[in-house]
Amino acid sequence: MNFDATRRQHDINFLKSNRVDLIVIGGGITGAGIALDAVMRGLQVALLERVDFAFGTSSRSTKLIHGGLRYLKQLEFGLVKEVGSERAIVHKLAPHLVIPEKMLLPLYEGKQMGYWLTSLGLKLYDFLANVRESDQRRMLTRAQTLKAEPLLNPTGVKGGAIYAEYRTDDARLTIEIIKTAARHGAYIANYAEVTDFILEGDHVAGVHVKDMRTGAGFNLLGKAIINAAGPWVDDLRERNHSRQGKRLHLTKGVHIVFDRKRLPIQQSIYFEVGDGRMIFAIPRDRFTYVGTTDTGFEGQKDDPGITPDDAIYLVNAVNSVFPSAELTLGDIRSWWSGLRPLIHEEGKSASELSRKDEIFESPSGLLSIAGGKLTGYRRMAERVVDLAVERHFSERRLNACNTRHVPINKVSFQDYEDVRRFQADLIQRNAGWAEEIPRLVALYGSEALNILNGLPQDRQVSSLWLAEREYCTRHEMVIDPEDFLIRRSGLLYFGCDLMDGEFLKRLADGDEASLARMQDVLSRQRLFSL
Ligand code: FAD
Questions:
Q1: What's the gap in Å between 192 CA and the centre of ligand 1?
Q2: Is residue 228 within 6 Å of ligand 1 at its C-beta?
Q3: Distance, CA 134 to ligand 1 centroid (Å)?
Q4: What HEC string does 179-232 produce?
Q5: % helix / strand / coil in the chain, to the nearest 5?
Q6: pLDDT 10s digits, 359-373
Q7: How far is the CA of 354 from the centre of ligand 1 (A)?
Q8: What pLDDT, in 10s, does the model give residues 103-154?
Q9: Global pTM?
Q10: Which atom of ligand 1 has the smallest separation from the CA of 369?
Q11: C-beta neighbour count of 154 within 10 angstroms
């Protein structure tokens, strides 16, 4: 059965009348990882997402699978080691989607990052993350640094470093893991909100679910329940009357996107700005995105938004390092804004808070997991499923966690070389689409072939996008056009230069309400370029 709206209805119908082993609340990367881990162990799993998969933080990150150099500064060696080794595993599981990327770190006179300390730190980073020799950090002289990135402000540059990272598409990583969990038998529904808990005695025994498409409610019983609702974790703990002790501290992070021509950097760059914070500038397709801010947040979590201050901060940061670009607010083509669900620590500022994950266990048996990183999703899942198994299924003979061996794409690639061979072959056979194929392969892996197969020969980009939409509707449970625009294809951010009213009309396919919503989403993106 395709992973589409019919499958969603099928799964909801099943859940209406059957009890499951494990209910996972939240379809971000954390919930996705848990669902896959649990189903591979042999549990019957339901995953419920209130809006769309990756609607929360998991579509609004810096889109890096990284070892977290900044955690070294905070002396969190354990975290660096864990996420450092995890990135290599996730790359192996999805080499088309988690792509090696060399990061340039320019070093300036009088800034926090000293040359020798950075050299030593990166060496330690490579050691902790077990980076293979050919990928280990390379220190650069001033001349080499300026040659690597001619756009850099030369004033005060004393050298630089190149080190290994991986880039990804966060929302696609999430959907691929969810599809994999579904292929292995998990019951999955987006637009299905958990509105309350069902108690048996003093134990949670299920949830009330509201189908957000029809408004109808139903009860779902489950032996174990894991709350993986990201920034909303505390709202559910509150409903479970268990928001005691540690709580979440939400911080907002904004990214802005420029045309690559306006910020034509040669590679990804991680640079320090005036206030000592570190900012990424990352090229992607025809664009370069820059982020992130890190400020305390209290407000409407669905849409944390961007303020003029956020945008001005980032534009100034970029101009301080790449002054010749002379960027203005008017150059911002698109943006996104997300919330970090961090664990509160008394007296610490937003950027000082640890990115470690934490599990909360309520007296009624609800397990909640928050904090952490996109990069560490697999280990987070392993830890919390281990605990759920210990609490609820110790008498069952279940498989051990094996997600490090479960590829996250239908047809798996051996390694990145294999991906490149596939891509070159696809280009050779579809020369007219050569420019678009790297993007398609990075997003859809081997499924790029299916998308291209269904294409008319007119070679118009809008036809390609419609073929992508068609694929995502049939195989990735796109329910609302926004799901496709933002979280399956990323076109709202990385295709906005080609997106016009005519295309939106074609995408809405006569549905006036969808069209109005998409026009609204698009117009909000243009806020600062008016
Ligand atoms: P979410 O993705 O928010 O998922 C929770 C889901 O639960 C949401 O989709 C929500 O709709 C759903 N939900 C809420 N309530 C309910 C309910 N009642 N019923 C059903 N569903 C519900 N990490 C990295 O490794 N690399 C990076 O480059 C990186 N950059 C970042 C940059 C920024 C600006 C931010 C904010 C974070 C970044 N992170 C990064 C961290 C990473 O993105 C997050 O740790 C991760 O995405 C959190 O995923 P999650 O699944 O826990 O939460």
A1: 17
A2: yes
A3: 33
A4: HHHHHCCCEEECCEEEEEEEEECCEEEEEEEEECCCCCEEEEEEEEEEECCHHH
A5: 45, 20, 35
A6: 999 999 999 999 989
A7: 16
A8: 999 999 887 778 888 898 889 888 888 888 888 999 999 999 999 999 999 9
A9: 0.96
A10: 52
A11: 11
